[in-house]
Predict the structure.
Amino acid sequence: MSETKSAANDPDLTRLVDDLLTWRRNVRHFQRRPIAELEMERLFALAQCAPSVGNAQPWRFIRVRDKGLRAALADHVDEAARNAGLCYEGERATRYASLKLHGLREAPEILAVYCDEAPSAGQGLGRATMPETLRYSTVLAIHTLWLAAQSRGIGLGWISIVEPGRISAMLAAPPQWHFVALICLGYADAPSSLPELERRGWQARLDWRDNISER
Amino acid sequence: MSETKSAANDPDLTRLVDDLLTWRRNVRHFQRRPIAELEMERLFALAQCAPSVGNAQPWRFIRVRDKGLRAALADHVDEAARNAGLCYEGERATRYASLKLHGLREAPEILAVYCDEAPSAGQGLGRATMPETLRYSTVLAIHTLWLAAQSRGIGLGWISIVEPGRISAMLAAPPQWHFVALICLGYADAPSSLPELERRGWQARLDWRDNISER
């Protein structure tokens, strides 16, 4: 690649990236067709290019291949989602009950994403005062994988209604690893430019101006 | 936009996005030339498209315009970086001292990024068991802004060697807001396909295969 490529302010690139960021969705409805192994390798390789504090690259992906484990994860999330729904009442409760919150039974790939809390890489640089930046780096790797997938027509769904301790026990995760996310990957059933939660009347996009202040 | 755009597995798009993710750098060397106001607005609008738990959109950006505040932030980071360096010895200490860790004095734009810990949007969806997903959502907004900037030839530098309490006091941040990052935005002095920490012998990229396991 040439050194000029990174300057990158080419209107076509800008427009494509704007579309990619606008069209990125959290996918809950997946087709069952598999993702080619070469594509999975490419996605993992790109995720490795994510920013990380001190270049510590602390993300750890567990790829769930076992059918029994997949079923146990799906059952656990269903239970956690039912419990989380108990706080809603009336129309909000009805709307909550109608939401599909995960695609763990259909998606061809399931990943549990962890943060190594004491990685040897990076020599501690940048995290003396904010050790949480290791977990933030792991989030950046998930988002990098997300956009790499999206540009290939592959959707990602992030599941956060889980008991991290239960997931880690099921997966026998090393004690030094902190659970960050459970994710599904696969081809989306019905792409859309609007978030599913917006289409279903849960929460619309806010005006960005409300989130900016000045000093 | 047509519904087909989101399917998006067009080889040109894939290649451009792969390049974008590969060329994204944490920038510490900035030109002083300003970013046009329309570009800043576009970046904020795109950041608002980031994924967030329950679509809660909890990110809050404080744009630092005051010169005195900018100088105070730079002085604080210099001090925090000196303190963080005390843990290194010998050649590692020399190497640490030679690193440029921020561009707070040169970058045309400085943002402090916060997470609203009790946003009204999202109705609590998705964070019953993992409240930290609000902070993770804020990280996703920073990364979205980062890539939107990169595609316009604008670099971003994330500074994490700070005492969050000191920054929040300087900026009079609301108590409900949790500090996530201090960032610089501007045109990079010298783009590169390699992380600065790798070029300077601090930490190279690891093999992605070492970060994947299966169950």
